[in-house]
Amino acid sequence: MLAKLRARVKSTHIIDDIRQETFSRVLQILRSRGGVRHPERLGALVNAVCTNVFREGCRSRRYEEFPAEGLAMSVGDVVDGLISEEQRRTVRRVLGELPESDRRLLRAIFFDEASREEICADLHVDREYLRVRLHRAKEKFRALFERSENQQPTRPLSSRF
């Protein structure tokens, strides 16, 4: 949830507000009479509630970024931003090198956050074989990513600016 929010919101205060509201709503659901029908899907429930809280905040402009907050960035934030942008480019490049079926599977799981049932139906496989295909795709991605990271020349941090 934290990684998802960091990609969408820059202010740590707003991220904390969204997380607190999300956990408050999830606790209300857990304490309600119906509770959770499928405990194994608790992670998906938390993710869905988080998405809804974020969207509600955006609609009401409660989570709108203010320019003053963006100006108060530290050097560490700038360096982290540069490094994460470099990693995003590497991830995109590595995804482009994967076979189409592996690329679609990884995008569906990690970017589109599709449910396992939807992915199984789309790929015409059962859940057990989906687990195997996901493992293989992640291993291919990991190998390509590590190879890509090792090929890039390492420069001192000061020369990146």
From TrEMBL:
UniProt key word Repressor: no
Key word Ribosomal protein present: no
InterPro entries linked: RNA_pol_sigma-70-like, RNA_pol_sigma-70_dom, RNA_pol_sigma70_r4_t2, RNA_pol_sigma_r3/r4-like, WH-like_DNA-bd_sf
Domain RNA polymerase sigma factor 70 region 4 type, first and last residues per copy: 89-140
Keywords: DNA-binding, Sigma factor, Transcription, Transcription regulation
A Pfam short name: Sigma70_r4_2
Protein name per UniProt: Sigma-70 family RNA polymerase sigma factor
